[in-house]
Here is the input.
Amino acid sequence: MSEFLQQLDPVSLLSITLITATPLTLAALGGMMCERSGVVNIALEGIMLTGAFIGYAVAFFTHNLWIGVAAAVLSGMIIASLHAVLSISLLVDQIVSGMVINIMAVGITGVFYRTYLESATSAGPGTLPHWNVPVLSSIPVIGPIFFENQFVTYAMLVLILVVHFVLFRTVWGLRTRACGEHPRAAETAGINVHFVRYVNVITSGALAGLGGAYFSLQQIGNFLPNMTGGRGYIALAAMIFGKWTPVGAFGASLLFSGSDQIGSRMQSVFHVQIPLQFLGMLPYLLTIVVLAGAMGRAIAPAAVGRPYKKE
Amino acid sequence: MVRVRGLTGVMTAAVLVAAAVLVAGCGGTTPTSSSSCSKTWKVGLVTDVGKLSDKSFNFDSYKGVQDAQADSSLCVQGKAIESSTEDDYPKNIGQFVDQKYDMIVTVGFKLGDATIKAAKANPSIKFVMVDFGDFTDNPVPSNLVGLLFKEDQPGFLAGALAGLMTKTNVIGAVAGLKTVPPVVHYVQGYANGAKYVNPAVKVLTIYQPESGAKDFNDPDWGKQQATTFFGQNADIIFGVGGNTGNGGLLAAKEKGKLCIGVDVDQYVSYPDVDSCLITSAEKHLDKAVKTAITSMVQGSFKSGILNFDMSNDGVGLAPFHDFDSKISSDVKAKVADVQAKLKAGTITTGVSS
Here is the structure.
C-alpha cells in the first residue's frame, strides 16, 4: 500500500493537475462571462493562442515577462473586441465569427512566429518565477499543491472567486444574466444589452488572453505554432460541464487535466499495458461522456447564440 | 607607452578586419573556380519545416554540405532551400531537379515520400535522405540512399553516464512517439546502458500518446511528465522527442535536476537548459551528409542504406560543457570504456532495430 502511495504520489499528481487546469479554467471563466450575457465564444482557442504569441513576442523584445503578461491580456481583449463587433453590432452568426478568429489566429501567429521569432538567436525571456507563499507553502499537502505556483495559476485561483462574485453577487452580474436569458426584457428594464454584451465579451478576451500567457510565459518560455492545441475547446466543454458556474468549471477542468495525468502515470509508473492511444483519448472520452449527459442536463442561458437586434 | 600600445592594438585590429573581409570575399566566390576541378558537383539541400537556423537537424545536415564545399578536393557547390510548409517539399526538390543538380539531400523522415518519388522520376540525379530509410519499394532505386543512425548506441552511452551520475538510482526518459523507431532505440539504449553500469538503477520512461499537431511538439506535456518523475525520485531526465523532450529538459532545469539532450548538442540548440545539461546523445549528421557527397564525387555511391554508428564515428556523446569539471574522472573513464567497447563491438546495446 505504501509503495502504491509512493507511486501514485498524490501530492505531485494534484499539483500538476492544478497547474495544467489553469488555461482550461481561465478560458472557461472567459467563456462563461461571455455566454452568461448571451454571446457564444468558441473563439477562446484563437484568443488563447494569440495571447500566448503576443505575450511571448512582447516579453522577448522588452525582456520583461510582466509586460508580456499584460500584452497577452490586452491582445486577448483586442481579438475579443473583433468578435464583439462582428457578433453584436454586425449580427454575424456567433459561431461563424468565433471560427473565423480561431482559424485566423493559427495562421497569423504561425506566420509571424516563423518570420520574426523562430530564427532569433538571443536567449528567450525565460519563464515566470515560482512564488512560494510564506508560511502557507510549508503546510503539508496543501502547501506544495496551492502555494508553490506561478503567477498565472495564482491569478486563476483568485479569478474563480472574482467571477463567481461578479456573476452572482453584483448588479452587473444580474444584468449580465438578464441579457443572456431574456435580452428583450432586460432592454425594457432599461439595460443597454449591447453595452453589457460588449463588456462581457471583451472581459472574456482578457481571461482567455491570460490563459494564453500560461503556455508561452509560465510553462515554456517560448512560443510554438498552435501551442494551445485545442485546450480552448476543452475549456468550452468544461464550462458546459460546470453548468456555466465558475466553481463547476474549475472542477471540470481539474477532472479533465487530472484524467490526463492519471493516463500518463498508468504508462510511466504503473506500467499498465494499454495502447498509448487509449490513454491519450482519456480526457476526450471523458468530455464526450460528460457532454452526452452523464452529469444531468446542463441548461444554457436561454438567449445564448442569438444576436440581439434593438427594436 | 600605453598610447602606443593602444595604437598598435587598433592597427592590429584593422589588419585583422581587413584580412577577415578578404577571407570572406574569397569565400563568397565559389571555390569551384579552382582550376583543379574538371567538374563542379552541385549539391542541393531541402529542409523540413524547421529552418536552417534550427541549430538542429537542418543546420547540422547543411553543415555537412558546407564542409564538403570547403573541401577543395571535392569540387562541390552547395545550396539550400528552406521549406515553410509540408506542401513545399516536392516543389523545392523540383527546383533543384530543374536546375540539373547532381545530388539532392533531403532532411528528415517527413520528406521521405517526396524524395522517393523524385528519385524514381529522375534517375540521373542522386538523392540522399537524412535519417530516413523506410523503403517500401524493392529494389531501391539505384540513385537513392538513406542515411541511418544507430541511435541505441549514443542512447546506451548517455544511459551509462546517467547510471553513474544518479544519486537516487532513479532516472527518467521523456520521449516522443513510440511509433517512430529512432525514439524507441534511443530510449531502450538509454535504459540498457544505465543498467549495464548500475544494475540497481530504475528507469522511468514515457512515450507521448499520438495526437496529431502536438506530436513531438508539446513541451508542456513533457514538463509534466518529468515533474512526475521527480516525484518518483528521479534526478536525471533524458529528453527524446523534439519540443516534447525539451519540456522534460526544462523541468529538470527548473527543479535543479540534471538533463540529457538528444540528436544534436543541445547546449547549442537549446541554451535555456545549459545549466542542467550534462551531455547530449548525438547523431553526427554533418559527417553523414559529407560522407554521402564524397561517395558521389569519388564514384563510389551506393544506393540503399548507409549506416552510421560508433565504429565510423557517426554517433556519439556531445561535450559535457559546464559539467566537464563536475563529472569525476572516474565516471569519465568508465563512460570512455563503454564507448570503446561499443566501438569495438565487444558489448552490444541489447536493442534490436
Q: What stands out?
A: The beta strands of chain A are 130-132, 148-150.
